Give the backbone structure.
Amino acid sequence: MTLDELKAKIEERFKDSILTAVLSAQKELIVTVKPEAYHEMAVSLRDEEGLAFQHLSCLTAVDYPKENKITLVDHLWSYRHGHQMTLKLDLPRDNARVRSVEDVWKSANWLEREVFDLYGVTFEGHPDLRRIMMPEDYKKHPLRKDFSDDGFIVKPN
Amino acid sequence: MGVELKGLTGSDLRQIETESAIPGLWTLEKAVGFIFKWARKNSLWPLQFGTACCAIEMMATASGRYDLARFGAEVFRPSPRQADLLIAAGTITEKMGYALKKLYDQMPKPSWVIAMGSCTIAGGPYYYDSYTVVKGIDSFIPVDVYVPGCPPRPESLIHGLMAIQKKIEDEPIFRRRRVE
């Protein structure tokens, strides 16, 4: 299956769940989904025969303070068909909550903990949502763009 | 001093007491201290603790080419309870800082600390724009000798070790260290 066929297939199958589907200049399929349809779509992407994205290779986030959103980015990979895609969803910055996909892909466990730790996104239904990198009594989320701390020294120009 | 030797003043005698190579002219504390210090400085047991690239240089120092065994400090102990020298080799993050403090507290006193490399001295290359790295381990444990470098060469670490030995020689044996 070529990427164009995959794109057409996903657009057809998840007509109601997705906002945009684009092929980037780097030949990557990037699909933006609605946060409420995220978990349901993840299950379908993993289980359906023509898609079969069994592997979540990366889950991370990007902070856009000007647009007041945090974008969650999932990279999916299919061993069976050898194709890949990127799943994105936008969350509000002040109340970033989304359904966890830990029960869909087990590799999401630590990746979601990392995003929770560094960006402050809460994953509902995650079995063990603790900080993974920073000390446990730490209060802030260091990879947010407006982060500041006593020990954080900004380089002078 | 009640005794007056011909041609010698009291200050001369005190100088003999403190500097003389003849043990018969020493005070008891100096005589006992001589033995204690000799034993301490020639059998420093470092803690086997390395967190980053400085640890590679520490391993090189312990191996045959640079041979830390010449200075009696080759017995790297995996347990802090058997060690009396902490070579903090490598970047210390805030989370590791808790562990390092605990290790230092578990070491029997007297113990000595070498801060090896820029990271442990002041945060090193992670001084700016880092939310994890401790800006110098001397903010939570007392440091005796700083060995600068990124990472320091084995010769530097050996020089630091010799500075520790000199320090052991110079300080009183019943030294008490305040631990915050």
